[in-house]
Design goal:
Order of helices and strands of chain A: HEHEHEHEHEEEEHHEHEHEEHHEHHHEH
Number of strands of chain A: 14
Order of helices and strands of chain B: HEEHHHHHHHHHHHH
GO cellular component, one term (chain A): periplasmic space
Protein name (chain A): Extracellular solute-binding protein
Oligomer: heterodimer
Subcellular location (chain A): Periplasm
Helix content of chain A: 40-55%
Number of helices of chain B: 13
Main location (chain A): periplasm
Structural class of chain A: alpha/beta
Radius of gyration of chain A: 22 Å
GO molecular function (chain A): polyamine binding
CATH class of chain B: Mainly Alpha
CATH topology of chain B: MetI-like fold
CATH superfamily of the largest domain in chain A: Periplasmic binding protein-like II
Structural class of chain B: mainly alpha
Number of domains of chain A: 2
Mean pLDDT of chain A: 91
Low-confidence stretches of chain A: 1-20
Distance between the termini of chain B: 41 Å
CATH superfamily of chain B: MetI-like
Number of domains of chain B: 1
Largest sheet of chain B: 2 strands, antiparallel
Chain lengths: 345, 288
C-alpha cells in the first residue's frame, strides 16, 4: 500500500513534464491571445497557452536575452523581426507544416525582415497602419496634414507615440519620404522639427491604454495611433474620434509569429501557428484589435463584407500606399539617439 | 567544542549577510561596472575596454541636460519635503500634547507607504488633470473660468507627486532627531533670556540637523532614481536620468551606455551619502 502510494507519487511527478509539454508561452501583444478565440484552441488542441504582453517592439529583445528559455513563440513587428534573426533567438519555420501559408498575401511574404538565406523565420499574422486620429468635437475642419500636429491652434493638445517612429513622422513633414534610409542630415532635420514641436506636445504616449486615457481625460485631441485599436476602445467609451491618413502618408506595420530557437514545445507551437493563420485566428484578432488579416482567403470567408472592406482587405492600393516598416539595422541607433535627444531637451 | 559551536554560530550570523551582500549587491555592481566599458555593436554589444560611454556622458548634451534636470527636480523635492515635513515633525515632537493625537498624526504620514507607489502616483493624475479635481475646484470657487492644463504633465506635477510620495522619508528621521533633544535644553535657553525664535535657530535646529540630513539624503536619492513619476505625470520636458537608463537597457539594447549612466548615478548618490554623513557628524553632540 505504502509502496503503491510512493509509486503513484513518482508517476504523478513523471507525468508533470508531459503536461508541461502541452503548454506554450507566448510573448505577444494584447489581443493576440484573447480568450475569445484562444479558449477554443486550448480545448481542441490540449495545449495550454500562457500569454505575456509587450507594450512595444523593444520589449522582445531584452526579454529573450534575459535567457531561461521561457518563451516558445513571439510576435514582433516587421521592423524587429530581423533583429530577432540576427540575435539568433528564433529558428526557421517549417512552412510546409503551416496550412494556409500559400494564402498569405504575396506582398507580406516578399518582405525582407522575415526571411534569411532562403528560409522563412516569421509567419505574417496581422497588419495595419500607424494612422493619425483626432477628436471630432475639437475640429471644425478635419485635419488632413501632419502640419496639424505642429499647429499652434492645437497647442497643448497634441500627442505623439514615444517611439523612434516619431522621426519617421517629422521626416515626412520635412518632405523626406524615404523614411527608413534617412541620412544623418535628414535625421538631424527631423530632430529639429520635433524639438520645434515639443512645446505644443501635451504628452508622448507609450502604451495603447495611455493614449486612450489621454483622449478620455480631454488632455489630447490629435495624435498618431495604431489604426483600428485605440479608436475602437474610445468608441466604446463614447468618445468620437476619426482616423485619417495624412497627405504625407502613413507607416504600415505587420506582425509576424516567430518560433523561439530550441523550443521544446514544437508540436503545440505549430498547432498554435496553424490556428492563428486560420479563420479562427485571423478573424479573432480582427474582431478583438481591429487589425487587418494577412490570410486573404481566411479573411474573405470569416469576415462580413463590411468588415472586409473596412479593414482594407479588398484594397491592395491602400496597402501599397503605406510605408511598411523596415528593419533599420545599424542605423537604428542613429534614429533612436535623435529621438532620445528630443526627449532630453 | 562549545567554543567551536559558538564560532560557527557567529560565522553563520555574520557570514550569511556577508554572502548575501556579495552575491546580490557587490556582484551586480561589478557586472554593471564591467558592462560600462563594453561597446555597442549591432545587434547588441561586445566586450571591450574603452571609456567611450563615459566620454559620451559628458560630450553628448542630451545626457548632461537630463542629469541637470534630475538634479534640479531632486533638490526641489528634498527642499519642499523639508519645508512641509519639518514643521509637521516639530509640531508632533514639541507642540502636540496628546499622545494619542501624536500617534495618530504620525501614522497618517507613514500610512501611505503601505499603499502601492503606483497607485499614489496615479491618484495625482486625477487630481491635477485638465478635467481633474483641482481644476473643478478652482472653477467652482471662481478662480478659473476654464480648466487649465498647467498642473499636469510637466515638472511641477513631478515635484508635487514626488514630494507627496517621499515626504514620510523626511518626517521620520526629523521627528526622531527632534524627539531626542532634551526638553530642558530649550527651557534653559529660555531661562537665560533667549527668545523662542533664536532658541529654535541656535538650539533646536542645529540639534536636529542629523535628522534633516538623513531626510534630505533619502528624499534626494529616491527622487534621483525615480522613473515612475516622469512616466505618469511628467510631460515632454520631464525625462529624468532613470528613464534614460531604462531606455538604454530596453529600447536601445545599449547596455554599455546604460551601465555607464548607472555607474555615474551611483557615484552621485554615494557622494551625497558621504556629504550627508559629514553633515550629520558635524552637528552630532560631541561625545567626550
Amino acid at each position: 500500500m505504502k509502496l503503491r502510494l510512493t509509486m503513484s507519487a513518482i508517476l504523478a511527478l513523471a507525468a508533470a513534464p508531459a503536461v508541461a509539454e502541452g503548454t506554450i508561452n507566448v510573448l505577444t501583444w494584447e489581443g493576440y491571445a484573447d480568450s475569445s478565440f484562444i479558449d477554443k484552441f486550448v480545448e481542441e488542441s490540449g495545449c495550454e497557452v500562457n500569454a505575456t504582453y509587450v507594450g512595444s517592439n523593444d520589449d522582445f529583445a531584452p526579454k529573450l536575452m534575459a535567457g531561461g528559455g521561457v518563451y516558445d513563440l513571439i510576435a514582433p513587428s516587421i521592423d524587429t523581426t530581423q533583429l530577432m534573426i540576427d540575435l539568433g533567438q528564433v529558428e526557421p519555420l517549417d512552412t510546409a507544416a503551416i496550412e494556409g501559408w500559400n494564402d498569405i498575401y504575396p506582398k507580406f511574404l516578399a518582405l525582407d525582415g522575415i526571411q534569411q538565406d532562403g528560409k522563412y523565420y516569421g509567419m505574417p499574422y496581422s497588419w495595419g497602419a500607424i494612422a493619425f486620429m483626432y477628436r471630432d468635437d475639437a475640429f471644425d475642419t478635419p485635419p488632413t496634414s501632419l502640419a496639424a500636429l505642429w499647429s499652434e491652434a492645437n497647442s497643448g493638445k497634441i500627442s505623439l507615440w514615444d517611439d523612434k517612429s516619431s522621426i519617421y513622422v517629422a521626416a515626412r513633414l520635412n518632405g523626406d519620404m524615404d523614411i527608413y534610409n534617412l541620412s544623418d542630415a535628414q535625421i538631424e532635420a527631423a530632430k529639429q522639427k520635433l524639438i520645434e514641436q515639443k512645446p505644443l506636445v501635451r504628452k508622448y504616449w507609450s502604451t495603447a491604454g495611455e493614449l486612450v486615457d489621454l483622449y478620455k481625460a480631454g488632455e489630447v485631441v490629435i495624435s498618431n495611433t495604431w489604426a483600428g485599436y485605440q479608436s475602437s476602445l474610445l468608441a466604446d467609451e463614447g468618445i468620437k474620434v476619426t482616423e485619417f491618413i495624412p497627405e504625407e502618408g502613413a507607416e504600415g506595420w505587420m506582425d509576424a509569429w516567430m518560433v523561439v530557437k530550441g523550443t521544446p514545445n514544437k508540436e503545440c507551437a505549430y498547432k498554435f501557428l496553424n490556428m492563428q493563420l486560420s479563420e479562427q485566428g485571423q478573424c479573432g484578432v480582427a474582431n478583438v484589435n481591429g487589425y487587418s488579416a494577412t490570410n486573404g482567403v481566411a479573411a474573405k470567408s470569416c469576415m462580413t463584407p463590411e468588415q472586409y472592406a473596412a479593414l482594407h482587405q479588398d484594397d491592395p492600393d491602400y496597402l501599397d500606399s503605406l510605408l511598411i516598416w523596415q528593419p533599420l539595422g545599424e542605423r537604428f541607433e542613429a534614429y533612436l539617439n535623435a529621438w532620445n535627444a528630443v526627449k532630453a531637451q | 567544542m562549545t567554543l567551536l559551536r559558538e564560532r560557527l554560530g557567529g560565522a553563520a550570523v555574520l557570514g550569511i549577510p556577508l554572502i548575501w551582500i556579495a552575491v546580490f549587491m557587490l556582484l551586480p555592481y561589478a557586472i554593471i561596472a564591467t558592462y560600462s566599458f563594453w561597446i555597442k555593436q549591432y545587434p547588441t554589444f561586445v566586450p571591450a575596454f574603452q571609456f567611450g560611454n563615459y566620454l559620451n556622458l559628458f560630450t553628448d548634451p542630451q545626457y548632461s541636460k537630463v542629469l541637470i534636470r534630475t538634479l534640479k527636480v531632486s533638490l526641489l523635492v528634498s527642499f519642499f519635503a523639508f519645508l512641509l515635513g519639518y514643521p509637521f515633525a516639530y509640531f508632533l515632537a514639541f507642540r502636540c500634547r496628546s499622545q494619542a493625537l501624536r500617534t495618530w498624526l504620525y501614522m497618517a504620514v507613514i500610512a501611505p507607504l503601505w499603499v502601492s507607489y503606483l497607485l499614489r502616483a496615479y491618484v495625482w493624475k486625477t487630481i491635477l488633470g485638465t478635467e481633474g479635481i483641482l481644476n473643478s475646484f478652482l472653477m467652482s470657487v471662481g478662480i478659473l473660468s476654464e480648466p487649465s492644463d498647467i498642473f499636469l504633465y510637466n515638472q511641477f506635477a513631478m515635484v508635487v507627486t514626488l514630494t507627496y510620495i517621499f515626504i514620510p522619508f523626511m518626517v521620520m528621521p526629523v521627528y526622531t532627531s527632534l524627539e531626542k533633544i532634551p526638553r530642558n535644553l530649550v527651557e534653559a535657553s529660555a531661562d537665560l533670556g533667549m527668545r523662542p525664535i533664536p532658541t529654535f535657530l541656535r538650539i533646536t535646529l542645529p540639534l536636529s540637523m542629523p535628522g534633516v540630513a538623513a531626510g534630505f539624503t533619502m528624499t534626494f536619492c529616491l527622487t534621483f532614481g525615480d522613473f515612475v513619476a516622469p512616466f505618469l505625470v511628467g510631460g515632454p520636458d520631464g525625462n529624468l536620468v532613470a528613464s534614460v537608463i531604462v531606455t538604454q537597457f530596453g529600447t536601445a539594447l545599449n547596455w554599455p551606455m546604460g551601465s555607464a549612466l548607472a555607474i555615474f548615478v551611483l557615484v552621485i548618490v554615494l557622494a551625497v551619502l558621504s556629504l550627508s554623513d559629514r553633515v550629520e557628524r558635524a552637528f552630532s553632540p560631541k561625545e567626550a
